[in-house]
Amino acid sequence: MQATQAQLNMNFIGHEAVLGEGDSFQAFAPASHAYLSDEFTNVTVEQADQAVGKAVAAFAAYGKLHPGQRADFLDAIAAEIEALGDELIERAVLESGLPTGRITGERGRTTGQLRMFASLLREGSWVDARINPALPDRQPLPRPDLRRMLVPLGPVVVFGASNFPLAFSVAGGDTASALAAGCPVIVKAHPSHPGTSSLAGQAIIEAARKTGMPDGIFSLLHADNEVAQALVAHPDVKAVGFTGSRRGGLALLKVAQERPEPIPVYAEMSAVNPVVILPGGISDQAGTSVCEKVAAGLAASVTLGVGQFCTNPGLVFLLDSPLTESFLETVAEKIRASAPATMLNAGIHSAYKKGVQQIRVLPGVHVLAEAETEADDERTEGRSAVLTTTAPLFLSNTDLSQEIFGPSSLVVICQTEAELADCLQSLEGQLTATLFATPDELRQSSVDWVTLLQTKAGRVLFGGYPTGVEVCEAMTHGGPFPATSDSRTTSVGSGAILRFVRPVTYQSFPDALLPLALQNANPLGIWRNVDGNLTKESC
Amino acid sequence: MQATQAQLNMNFIGHEAVLGEGDSFQAFAPASHAYLSDEFTNVTVEQADQAVGKAVAAFAAYGKLHPGQRADFLDAIAAEIEALGDELIERAVLESGLPTGRITGERGRTTGQLRMFASLLREGSWVDARINPALPDRQPLPRPDLRRMLVPLGPVVVFGASNFPLAFSVAGGDTASALAAGCPVIVKAHPSHPGTSSLAGQAIIEAARKTGMPDGIFSLLHADNEVAQALVAHPDVKAVGFTGSRRGGLALLKVAQERPEPIPVYAEMSAVNPVVILPGGISDQAGTSVCEKVAAGLAASVTLGVGQFCTNPGLVFLLDSPLTESFLETVAEKIRASAPATMLNAGIHSAYKKGVQQIRVLPGVHVLAEAETEADDERTEGRSAVLTTTAPLFLSNTDLSQEIFGPSSLVVICQTEAELADCLQSLEGQLTATLFATPDELRQSSVDWVTLLQTKAGRVLFGGYPTGVEVCEAMTHGGPFPATSDSRTTSVGSGAILRFVRPVTYQSFPDALLPLALQNANPLGIWRNVDGNLTKESC
């Protein structure tokens, strides 16, 4: 990589590094609560249009590449990100306030995702090829030759998230899965980490040049809300990926729905990730102190990363039992001992403080514990808090089921299974739902807890904690509205690629005119469904 | 089947046959242009709510059934439809004006679809099971056990189509795929064929009783628009299937988007199904008169079923060549010789006449040919018509690219490849796009015609005619907006089941608490993705 420093503040309209012709702004360092010296420039609507125009041209060329070439591009992005070395890590730490260890881990997650999609492309079966060969002699009518596979939607706009400056941002999961699917990507950078964004964007452009990708396959834009909405409204944009607030996600969804041609918006927006604890789930077994372990684990999950995860457990439903007191005491002890830490930006920090404050003053809500150490800097550091309330109160006030983004959780103590079931039934859609219980008590209960939680969430955990989202084939990081805007999808794991494709059927095509995945000889060697049977054979 | 005649005019709220408490109406026989004596009753919003309430209860019970039991239910529906015998055929002929042969064929398609989904369920791999077993020793962090499969969305509302009183109606593809997916179905019957609808509904209820399905797994409602919209707005309804007009589909989409929890609407709305003819595609080869054959085939496709198919070829783009005259002459001859025939209902008939009239009076639009025989009944019978125009005129008037539902087509004669490409580029999304050409001329052309058509349609044909939609694994009956409201899906073929499911991940579950599809022993014997490899082995 060359001249990184010189390009730290650049936009990329396709391969071209340019200054925005809109407003300029400075990055903010949350740990020092100070603006940084580098000046960033927002692009104008006209510049954003140029990026879309280049993406349209790139789409046609990119679609003609062998899947292996797309894979090489993704691998090259991972290598270029690694080649940025400490400069990327330091910048991300500076702009996010997150610790170096966390950012280093997140870089590994980012490059791992890119390489996972590269190997998915090389294996190739993800295109869900289906072949029904012609039956010319069928009665009463012959059947034509029909072959179907998944093809890319077209240019995709991705909105980076503030809480994962690498893994859910410029070169994150949305970008990796859209590029893997065959779609050009235009990233609208998150203003919380503009320098990190530019560096990651530069890595992608460098990888595109080195692997001969068409100009326009990727653009990185710093932009205000007006330009962001214009991008979503642009007729040549065919899908949107977003991770962030509910308000932000819904605003983009509205723009997308009101287009003459509506397009899919994959917005991962908000969740409180309920944790349900039945007495058996914290009963001591064979001398192990399960109750203490679960309570300590919960407190650790609530405070992890200053609570700034979409999967943070914000609600705990505890079925009252003789263990309640001891459970709560351990949680309280751990929360009191937790250290305040810098939050991602001033807006998140003040929203967190305000959110906790609004709840704690309600009659019937009690503060179980707060971090005892005062914050070094009241303007930036979040202090953990766990509150308690009762099921009737919870049910009577929908404010209590809203997400407070940060290291807090509300424990709802339920007196009966019916109360607990009512509470769960009242919840909106969630990314995760966790159940602590024994198989025996599940069998004996009159409520089907697993099914109840499954209707509410994209991932159901038996024990464990929802923070920590594995990147793998079996992950669902999604869930019913408003956890996401489209419950049929995941934004993490190999399934994320399915968001950016649609099926196309080719009828009666000469073999040579078919895409490789559908040709008789199966030149890609992929699994295909031929008349209902999965096979790698030719047909 | 018992007491069919007595129940011809019934609604079914779950298993219970009831009269609607709303307005009453009579069926209409298009062939005789007369109302029939049977009186049907629309349900009220309250009755529709009861159906949804029953569906919610049934959803929980239905989800616990072995996939084989759902398959038995679908097979039983097919058997009950056949058991209705001639009564169903005669009623459908009476209410649709379609010939007996066509309706008999459509019944075969309907029962075939149901049995296809039954065998898909028995094979079982469609749930896309993915397993990443735990890696307790992985560094730096252990990996939990993660297992993911597709689960049903919940109660689905289906709107029957007027043009397929069996195959896209009460027991049609939407109902079959939603029931197969595990979703209860509430059908809003099309008022064009209420008796046919009640008979099919009765067959489904009979099958549900015989196979022990929960009350509420299926409801059939006659209803007005207000009740229809209330169904789509009901918080417990989780998806909508629709086949019909663009106006109708967009109205439902709007209701679904404005819900507090938006839900997917799968509306198959409109298409003009462009047919592109390059000179090579109609050049005579080895003594065969290709030109005449293609022209005659096209005329047959335009007039098939009085043009009342979503895949009717409404636009033909002909690249001008020495063959133009002879091609058009054959088309004209066939169209002139075509017989007028009864259309589905008075609304469709008058919209067709009006649509053709609006186009034919435009300067630069010429009538190439019309059916020469006068209609026996001007109020009901549609007469075929083919018109011609030029590319510049086509490009200057978007009215010319709108669907006219019926046996007409507009031939746009293009002077250059660039003109032709501009015309195609201007089109909205389509169900199908057809290309007549030789592989040689495609290679030599400066335009990538296949890719251009693929961006516009869900199914691309090389030669052949778009009417005739095979029910199979490889079919895509879908396409970019406004052909459908969701280009990522198909409403015909086994892929239709994917519209009514979402992925759910189970983390760290005891084996016995997992769904069968995800248990270690693979008791269903399905294909599963285990750490990226497809296998039927246990894990």
Explain the overall architecture.
Two copies of one chain form a homodimer. With 539 residues, chain A is α/β, with parallel strands linked by helices. Chain A has two domains: 241 residues, Aldehyde Dehydrogenase, Chain A, domain 1 (3-Layer(aba) Sandwich); 188 residues, 3-Layer(aba) Sandwich (Aldehyde Dehydrogenase, Chain A, domain 2), CATH 3.40.309.10. Chain A contains 16 helices and 23 strands. In chain A, the strands form six sheets. In chain A, strands 15-17-18-13-12-19-20 form a seven-stranded mixed β-sheet, sandwiched between helices. In chain A, strands 21-6-5-22-23 form a five-stranded mixed β-sheet, with no helix packed on it. In chain A, helix 3 runs antiparallel to helix 5 and helix 3 packs across helix 7. The longest helix of chain A is centred in the first third of the chain and has 24 residues. Chain A is globular, with a radius of gyration of 25 Å. Chains A and B meet through helix 5, strand 5, strand 6, helix 16 and strand 20 of A and helix 4, strand 5, strand 6, helix 15 and strand 20 of B.
Question: Secondary structure elements and their pairing?
Answer:
Two copies of one chain form a homodimer.
Chain A: H1 4-7, E1 11-13, E2 16-18, E3 24-29, E4 34-41, H2 45-63, H3 67-83, H4 86-96, H5 100-123, E5 130-132, E6 146-152, E7 156-159, H6 173-181, E8 185-188, H7 194-210, E9 218-221, H8 225-233, E10 239-243, H9 246-257, E11 265-268, E12 275-277, H10 290-303, E13 315-319, H11 324-337, E14 341-342, H12 346-360, E15 366-370, E16 381-382, E17 385-390, H13 391-396, E18 408-414, H14 417-425, E19 430-436, H15 439-444, H16 449-456, E20 457-462, E21 501-507, E22 528-530, E23 533-535
Parallel strand pairs in A: 5-22, 7-8, 7-10, 8-9, 10-11, 12-13, 12-19, 13-18, 17-18, 19-20
Antiparallel strand pairs in A: 1-2, 3-4, 5-6, 6-21, 14-16, 15-17, 22-23
Helix pairs in contact in A: 2-8, 3-5, 3-7, 4-5, 4-7, 5-6, 10-11
Organism (chains A, B): Spirosoma taeanense
GO molecular function, one term (chains A, B): oxidoreductase activity, acting on the aldehyde or oxo group of donors, NAD or NADP as acceptor
Domain Aldehyde dehydrogenase (chains A, B): 23-439
